[in-house]
């Protein structure tokens, strides 16, 4: 399980904040929150900003996407809607069922390359190799930590708990949806979650200012009648 010093966390937060700013420049502006997935060697192995507007899916937060990108690797674009995280707390959608869906969908996307018609016909060797690769990545996640520019929401904290990530670093509180103390303190309910609020003035101020810029500009994906301010 990787743990960061405050100096290391600040360095990663500055990287994440620089990337978060870029999300404001996208045509479909996204909430400027960025997440880094850090491994035991303290290297970035995956990252993402929010995709809620682009995907029209309110659950596509940066933390979940960074994990999906790591699990699916080069197949992320084809597999991103499966979201393996959900299988951990749903008896009707076990890890085996999610991996079955993975193979079926992969077949649909790359049938000419893989020449697989359905899950039942997948060669055992091929299935085992893919299964083991995914399982290895899921196990690796338990050794990682995340660095995110804003306190993760309740949904994301619970997802991180399910996946087994124990250390969460952030520099800005989420007073509307935060799951690390601002609204709910899930880290107190689940003792295997360690919350690290990095109270670094420059990082916190930049994160807050980025979100102010997002709200000032207006959300292009919000219905007209729901907007409190015009799109600039």
CATH classification, class level = Alpha Beta
Oligomer: single chain
Give the N-to-C terminal Cα separation. 44 Å
CATH architecture annotation name: 3-Layer(aba) Sandwich
Could you state the order of secondary-structure elements as H and E? HEEHHHHHHEHEHEH
**What does the radius of gyration come to?**
19 Å
**Form type:** globular
Number of domains: 1
Strand element count: 5
Low-confidence segments, given as residue ranges, are 112-121
**What is the averaged pLDDT score?**
79
Helix content: 40-55%
Structural class: alpha/beta
Let me know the CATH homologous superfamily: Cytidine Deaminase, domain 2
> In the CATH scheme, what's the topology name?
Cytidine Deaminase, domain 2
Strand content: 5-15%
> What does the main sheet amount to?
5 strands, mixed
Instruction: Please give the order of strands in the largest beta sheet.
Output: 2-1-3-4-5
Explain what you see.
There is one protein chain. The chain has 10 helices and 5 strands; from the N terminus they run αββααααααβαβαβα. The chain is an alpha/beta fold and 232 residues long. It has a single domain, classed as Cytidine Deaminase, domain 2 (3-Layer(aba) Sandwich). It has a 5-stranded mixed sheet with strand order 2-1-3-4-5, sandwiched between helices. β3 (145-148), α8 (154-163) and β4 (167-170) form a beta-alpha-beta unit. The longest helix is centred in the middle third of the chain and has 18 residues, at 124-141. The chain is globular and about 55 Å long.
């Amino acid at each position: 399980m990787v743990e960061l010093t405050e100096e290391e966390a600040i360095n990663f937060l500055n990287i994440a904040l620089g990337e978060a700013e870029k999300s404001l420049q996208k045509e479909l502006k996204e909430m400027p929150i960025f997440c880094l997935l850090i491994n035991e060697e303290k290297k970035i192995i995956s990252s993402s900003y929010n995709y809620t507007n682009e995907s029209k899916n309110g659950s596509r937060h940066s933390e979940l996407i960074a994990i999906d990108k790591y699990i699916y690797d080069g197949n992320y674009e084809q597999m991103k809607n499966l979201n393996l995280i959900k299988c951990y707390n749903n008896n009707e959608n076990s890890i085996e069922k999610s991996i079955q869906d993975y193979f079926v969908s992969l077949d649909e996307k790359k049938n000419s390359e893989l020449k697989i018609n359905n899950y039942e016909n997948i060669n055992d060797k091929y299935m085992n190799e893919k299964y083991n690769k995914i399982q290895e990545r899921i196990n690796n996640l338990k050794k990682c930590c995340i660095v995110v520019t804003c306190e993760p929401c309740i949904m994301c904290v619970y997802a991180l708990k399910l996946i087994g990530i124990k250390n969460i670093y952030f520099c800005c509180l989420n007073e509307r949806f935060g799951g690390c103390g601002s609204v709910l303190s899930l880290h107190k309910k689940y003792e295997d979650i360690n919350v690290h609020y990095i109270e670094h003035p420059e990082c916190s101020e930049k994160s807050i200012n980025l979100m102010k810029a997002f709200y000032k500009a207006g959300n292009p994906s919000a219905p007209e009648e729901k907007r409190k301010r015009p799109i600039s």
